[in-house]
Amino acid sequence: MIIEEYLYYIILPILAVSVLLVFCRFVMGPSIADRVVALDLLITIGITLIAIYSIVYDQSTFLDIAMILGLIAFLSTVAFSYYLEKRNRKKREKQQREEQQDE
Amino acid sequence: MKNRFLSNILLTFIWVAITGSFEFANYLFGFILSFIIMYVITKGRGSAKYFKIVPKLIGFIFFFLWELLKANLQVAYDVVTPTFYMTPGIVRVPLDAETNLEITLLANLITLTPGTLSLDVSDDRKVLYVHAMYLKDKQDFIDDIKNGFEKRLLEILR
Amino acid sequence: MLIAILTGFVFAILLFFGGKNIVSGKLALLPALIPLSLFIYFVRFIKDISNNEIVHKTYEWIPSLGINLSFTLDGLSLLFSLMITGIGTLVFAYTSAYLKGNNYLDRFYGYLAVFMAAMLGLVLSDNLISLFVFWELTSISSFFLIGFNNTSLASRKSAFTALGITGLGGLLLLAGGLVLGSITGTYDISEMLQHKDLIANSDYYLLVGCLIFGAAFTKSAQFPFHFWLPGAMKAPTPVSTYLHSATMVKAGIYLLFRLSPLMGSTNFWNTTLTIVGLITMVYSAFHCLFRTDMKGVLAYSTISALGILVFLIGLGTQESFLAAGVFIIVHALYKATLFMVTGVVDHQAGTRDITQLSGLRKVMLPVAIAGILAAISNAGIPPSIGFVGKDLIYEGTLHLENSAILLTAFAIITNVLISYAGYVAGVKPFVGKLPEKFEKVKFPHFLLWFPPVLLAVAGFVFGVFPFLLQDSLVKPIVQTTGLNTSEIHLKLWHGFTPVLGLSALTIGSGLLLYFLLKPSKKLEQFIAKFDKLSPKSIIENVVLGFTNFSGFWTSTFQSGYLRNYISIIVLFLISLMGFTLLDGTTYKVDYSSFARITVYEVVILTILVLSIGLIVFAKSRLAAVVSTGIMGYSICLLFVFYSAPDLAMTQFAIDTLTVILFVLVLYKLPKYLNLSDYKMRIRDGILSIAFGGLISILALEVLAQPVNSEISDFYAKNSYLLAHGKNVVNVILVDFRGADTMVEISVLAISAIGVFGLLKLRLKSVERFQK
Amino acid sequence: MKTLILRTASNYLLPILLLFSIFILLRGHYLPGGGFVGGLIASIAFVLHAFANGLKDTKKLLKFHPGFLMPIGLAVSFLAGLLPVIGFDEPFMTGLWMHDTIPVLGALGTAMFFDIGVYIVVQGVTLTIIFTISESA
Amino acid sequence: MEFLLAIITGLLYAAGLYMMLRRSMVKLIIGLIIISNGANLLIFLLGRITKGHPPIIPDGSKVFTEIYADPVPQALILTAIVISFGLQSFAIILIKRAYQAVKTDDLDEMNTIEEEIK
Amino acid sequence: MTQQLLLYPLLFQLFLSILLMFFWKKIETQKIISIVGGFIGVFLSALLFYKVWHYGTQTVQAANWEAPYGITFVADTLSATLVLLTAIAGMAVSFFSAASVIPARLRFGYFPIYHFLLLGLTGAFLTGDIFNLYVWFEIIIISSFVLITLGGEKAQIEGAVKYFTLNILASIIFLTAIAVLYGLAGSLNMADLAVLVPQLKNRHLVEVTAILFLVGFGIKSAVFPLYFWLPASYHTPPSAVAAIFGGLLTKVGVYALIRIFSLIFLDNEFLNDLLIVIAVLTLFSGAIGALVQKNVRKIFSYLIICHIGFMIGGLGMFTKVALAGMVFYLIHDIMVKTNLFMISGLIYRIKGTNNVKLLGDLYDKYPKLSLLMFIPLLSLIGVPPFSGFWPKVSLIIATLNEKNYVLLGAIILGSLLTLLVVAKLWSEVFWKKGEELPVRKHFLYFKQMDKARKFQFLAPIVMLAGVSLYIGFGAEHMQQLSNRIASELINNQQYIDAVMPQNN
Amino acid sequence: MSNILIIILSSLGAIFILLAAIGFVRMPDTYLRISVTTKAVTLGVGLILASAAVYFDDLSVTSRVLAIVLFIILTSPVGAHLIGRASYFSGNKMWGKSITDELDGKYQPNSHKLSSGEEFEDEDEEEDKTEHKKSDLL
Ligand code: NA
Ligand code: NA
């Protein structure tokens, strides 16, 4: 019983504070990359939240969700990186075109 | 080598089945037990590499964990204290690792240890660009990686 | 009788399919045999009817609605049937010559046949609903007849106007009939007569009266709905002859006549009819003075005659009904003649402009005879039947108890003007000098001049021998009103009475007027100045205003702006919800039933709220998308906390995929601009907050209600034992509610196909239309 | 974005994810999971592969157009639901169960096949959508 | 907690609607996503929430022995989520296609077909 | 096997859709499957109708879980009738699609999606479960989205965005309503809800729930002031698609309203009044909207709205006579509106445009076709004894019984304006001397078609015109049918008993 | 015994995560933020999951925990690599006190090809473009 309470009153708040901190950075940005990393981080901390929660409620089922989170959270990072690259290329092509026109 | 490993696992399962205790400790115990057994029964029959790698692998894991912990503490210190002591920079690290797997593992391990971040591998796979937080001497840094992670990793993989 | 009616329809259908062959060439006269045989059929009934018999037939049609095809043949309907078929025969025959060589003669006959059948059905129906059915069919067929020259804009407009006015009347008739039905419990007029008291004492009496009047006045072109009739003169002359003088326009008269015994003898009924009839007859008779188109003259005089009929029915005495009955016959005979005459003139001389026409007797004597005879009958000069008719009118007005003198005076004025109209149309073209340009006018075809002559002569035969009509038709007609008929004696000569004096006065004034006032363009232009005040233009303006309003209303609501649509819908929803939810409810929520709040919940909720804020206020599209992702993941965590692992997994996977989709699409889009201004944002914000607030209140209220967990208990009990699964959510998905899932995967498949088609299918210009 | 690191990682992740998706699919009747999530994970595996190696490679790997999975999956689910109607004059979707249970999967019944159909459809759908978009990007 | 969730649900509806009322099509779709989440949460909330007891029959028992969360709303939401995934993907592609066809993301410029009546 | 007869029309459509997907690229095969399938569908639906007519309401408990635990499918007379009409209209449009939809569209899944749409319609009519109804609605929506956007022309996309958004909004409101209903009553089975909801203490909340349903379904049935999506989009897809949309999509909304209000939310004075107000404004807005339009299909679109008003009015009065009128109108309207949009397609193929200003001459050049097209127009106006007339009789009687003169006036005005709109249409499109339009390259005009295609074009129009004629001239049968449906709707106990016999 | 282990593991894990979060907020540039968080979080997650494994003391849980940790170890550095790289492309500046950037100028601007800096060669621009067009999902 003590463990559950320890986790509940000590660990969960620490994690919660971490989540909030990360979210602060998400709000602050400044670049999209920071936001994407924040998102990734939030999910990863979410995994720990779920893990602790599953201990507190003695429901190991929740770890399954953590598993899925761990597996596919990564994909949104991949997607956003892809976006950033593509967008960057597009910008550069546009710049080049304009430069060529200037010449 | 793969066969050995598989046999090892198989034996572990047999052990667990026999004992009927499905606890983690029992698996671990079964694994060690069957490793020893296999070491004994295949001793001197040529393909002893497997038995050399496993201890190295275990050693590597501990090395990795130690590095992880050590550098985490370093960063932690930097993070909690008001001023930063960082001297960051992106460094070009020439690679001895050749195969995709080698390079990827190396890069990932470098990233996972604090203070360093593998940014990219050159297209000709000769150079790894690493972002480092505490960069005092470039050559020292490169040597650390080459003699530490890369060497140990390649020992295991090759 | 049903067969009699159906004959026309069947014939029409035949014409539509093989028409060209039937009516082309020499067989063109054939169609006339149809009305002729029907005429003979109806003539056979004269004897029975004059013996006070009534023929009644009922066929079941829609018993569930109490609607039957029941037909009655009594004096009134016999008169109309004879007119419809008799004049119909002549018109059919006349048409074969008039429209000879017209490409669409088959169509024309088809319409005429439909019209004739419908008109027969109308006058024979005893059931008010079936009467309405035929009433509408006459409107539709007349639409086609008026618009026969369909390439002419004026024709189309007139057809449209006529249909609009008579269509409105028809709907009023339907409503009136249905009210009568709901009062009396039957739609059969003969049965209704037995419940006369119910009607008179009903709360609906006024309503029914107004509805019936609306129907009759529109159909019979009473002021202020009269203007469609002059417009309808755009139709070929046979149509004007048949529909717009002899038959269709009299349908309203027929209706009033028919319903008088049922609804008449009240102040409302009689006064309204008298006044409307009076206004109509005087107003339009006056208008005859200002027309130069022969048909225009005749149209206004027809309206005036219809006004006289309404007026007479409104008087509601035995004498006035007698006068009305006779006048129907009189008018049919002379007006049909005059129209046909006009048609011949138009057909041969190529114009109907009365100011140009004269002396045509030299080239078409029989036509001139018909015209002059008809004009005489029209003017009420003895020994024509017109004289009899006019006398009866004066007798009807003179013997009134109230305002006899005044009404008689109006009748005289009307008659004077009408007789003027008759001279203008029936005499003026034929007398005087034949202008040069008409010297080469050819003598008309036999079938063009014979029908009018026949009709005109008939007017004199009946004038000389009025007893021919007395027992056979006139008495039975009056009989249908339920009044005493024993004292009716039609005579040409009554001796020297005041009425005779009035007749003489009328004839004299009419002739005088004709000699003094010649129709001219000036007069026509003079009256045109008052067009703005005419009911026609007033109603046209109203219609125009209505159309403009329609455009305004439609484009206001259908503005093209999606956000307006959404706003209106949500506004509608929240005003209704707000009205019911906040109105008088005591807002009571049992907070004690709510679970305690924990730190991590607060953190997740905070993040949820903040991420929503970020989405709403994001400056970049990608930031909005990332924030949406965070929102989704927070909700996913909520699902974890509240025991929904399956949900959490699915939501998480789907959110990730959605992010990927967005990312794949986004970088192709243009800049993410904030396009709305400050005011708009405030407005939308208020609307949104109101919406969200109501949803929150609703949720809280529902949460305070007791729970019924019968169904989930069943699942909990049986999920493993009967459905062999322990994850109840999954068992529900694949078993208890598997049908949902089957549909759901179909939805997914469809959307994938849709996406595939949307992106891969680009129609090339060739493909766009070619098959 | 075909970086070496991502490519290598994705080559190892693909089988792991696929295996994992089947695992999630099969356990759905007893524990969280099932056809939907399973199918989504499987498609995520392929999407990841496509990100790392390019669409062409992934398509080559799949051998046929993923859209083809949709009618197949639908047919599997449909037949699983139809079997009781055709064979036993029971209502559509009535669960039919084998008497004996199978070690890993537990009881074997039409519901399982239904869920497998779902799994296939979801994969077909997700992959079709994502592949189509990236092809026309 | 239910109280806060009810407020959040309302907030989701409000934010979703607000986004739908913007002129950008991307915002419109995001709005739809938000409001769908709101609806899901509403089903979840009104089906009553339970902490830490997923509707999964524990190992070794054949029926529930203790309290459990109502599985019905969960199944409904699952269906709704998957359906809205289908719709959302279609919508997202629609943005793309609309941009190709109409060359704008601005909804106000997408009413040529409706203007012709005026 | 006959026990499950109720599900056959449903399962058969699903089967067809899946089968068609397997023949993805073989569009000729797809055409044959669709048409043959259409006939079989009519046959199956007719069987179902026969059974319901003679043996009363049929039910099937899907997956064999007794109500209210599983999903119940119910065919009372109303449902069976609508399923049959769907099948008939569906078959006609299959035919018409085979002739009129261009191959490019067919190659991208037109037929599978089309049959999914029919599946959705059939399912919506047959389900006895409120959430299942939502799911069917979704399949209808998504397949209609796909059909409306297939081809991706600019106009299509613009229309689709509005169509899409507003319909999804409707779905979300519907879902919200389900959430509240489940929160209050704890059940989803409509018969069960019919028992539970009247017992609920908090009537305010029940009323709010009803309003949510009203608005959700109201959007789908395109009533005032929720109809915007319809005129914005119905003229953009191929005419075959518009035909099935025009005939059936809004009717599903109406059906859902009927179901909900006759079964669950009974006798609420406020709601009934509200429905009547909505009906009046719907009639009015639709009619005047049609009056000012210049495109044949837009005119028809507004007429759809207008005529929805008749049905909503009937529902609002909720007497037996009114309901009978409403049901009769529903039956009539499905056939006529489907046909009208096919006719618009025919006109388009003849002249290459649907713009009223440019059209003309049809009566001169194609007199027989014109008269063929005139039949549905007559039905539309409700010229007696064509089909639109009889339901109006019942509706007017009902307004008189209820002394609802405003609605009476609206019905008369709506009818009159419909008459005028059609007259105007006729005079502009058929009578007027049309402008000489430049001959379009790559355009297949009607006169250029071969006999077989002409037949495919005209057969469905003739068929539906025939059905309309039957409805009008055989009004007695329809009236009996409507009366029976009306009495079933008024007495909801028989529905409840059929679904949950164990309750007695 | 196991309780103490759980407390130790979870406390350490939570602290590392907290540190990572603080670091994430405090670090001055994107690369540093990525760098700090990847490992701290990996370690933290691993520790906390380990505590769960100890708590449940059940093979299936343990294997799941192992799986999760393995996944994270496998994926998070890859993610860091990708986002770091992307961040470099989008021109995120390094912190002012950074001492060197050997990556500067090594990327081909259009193809994003990365040179090792040993054999820098001028690639044909046109070839780049065509390749870009072909690559679909890249
Ligand atoms: Na490191
Ligand atoms: Na990392």
UniProtKB/TrEMBL annotation, chain A:
Membrane spanning residue stretches: 6-24, 36-56, 62-84
Example GO molecular function: sodium:proton antiporter activity
Main location: membrane
GO CC entries: plasma membrane
Keywords per UniProt: Antiport, Cell membrane, Ion transport, Membrane, Transmembrane, Transmembrane helix, Transport
Membrane topology category: Multi-pass membrane protein
One of the Pfam families matching this protein, by short name: MrpF_PhaF
Cell compartment(s), UniProt: Cell membrane
NCBIfam families recorded: PRK12599.1-2
Family: Belongs to the CPA3 antiporters (TC 2.A.63) subunit F family.
Entry protein name: Multisubunit sodium/proton antiporter, MrpF subunit
Protein species of origin: Mesonia phycicola
Top-level taxonomy: Bacteria, Pseudomonadati, Bacteroidota, Flavobacteriia, Flavobacteriales
From TrEMBL, chain B:
Lyase among keywords: no
Name under which the protein is recorded: Multicomponent Na+:H+ antiporter subunit E
Keyword list, A-Z: Cell membrane, Membrane, Transmembrane, Transmembrane helix
Organism superkingdom: Bacteria
Bilayer topology: Multi-pass membrane protein
Pfam families named in the record: MNHE (PF01899)
Matches recorded under InterPro entries: Cation_antiport_E
Compartments where found: Cell membrane
GO molecular function terms noted in the UniProt entry: monoatomic cation transmembrane transporter activity
Protein family per UniProt: Belongs to the CPA3 antiporters (TC 2.A.63) subunit E family.
Bilayer-spanning residue ranges: 12-41, 53-69
Presence of keyword Nucleus: no
Species annotation: Mesonia phycicola
GO CC annotations on file: plasma membrane
TrEMBL record, chain D:
Matching InterPro entries: CPA3_antiporter_subunitB (IPR050622), MnhB (IPR007182)
Transmembrane parts of this sequence: 12-30, 36-55, 67-88, 108-133
Signal peptide limits: none
Domain of life: Bacteria
Subcellular localization, as worded in the UniProt entry: Cell membrane
Topology term for the membrane: Multi-pass membrane protein
Limits of the Na+/H+ antiporter MnhB subunit-related protein domain: 5-128
Major subcellular location class: membrane
This protein's GO CC annotations: plasma membrane
Keywords: Cell membrane, Membrane, Transmembrane, Transmembrane helix
Listed NCBIfam families: PRK12509.1
Family under the similarity heading: Belongs to the CPA3 antiporters (TC 2.A.63) subunit B family.
Protein name, UniProt field: Multisubunit sodium/proton antiporter, MrpB subunit
TrEMBL record, chain G:
InterPro entries named in the record: PhaG_MnhG_YufB
Highest taxon in the source lineage: Bacteria
Molecular-function annotations in GO: sodium:proton antiporter activity
Membrane-spanning intervals of the chain: 6-25, 37-56, 62-84
Skewed-composition ranges (Basic and acidic residues): 129-138
Record carries keyword Ribosomal protein: no
Keyword check for Metal-binding: no
Record's signal peptide: none
Sequence ranges of Acidic residues compositional bias: 118-128
Keywords recorded for this protein, A-Z: Membrane, Transmembrane, Transmembrane helix
Chain residue ranges for the region called Disordered: 102-138
Alphabetized Pfam families for the sequence: PhaG_MnhG_YufB
Organism: Mesonia phycicola
Protein name: Multisubunit sodium/proton antiporter, MrpG subunit
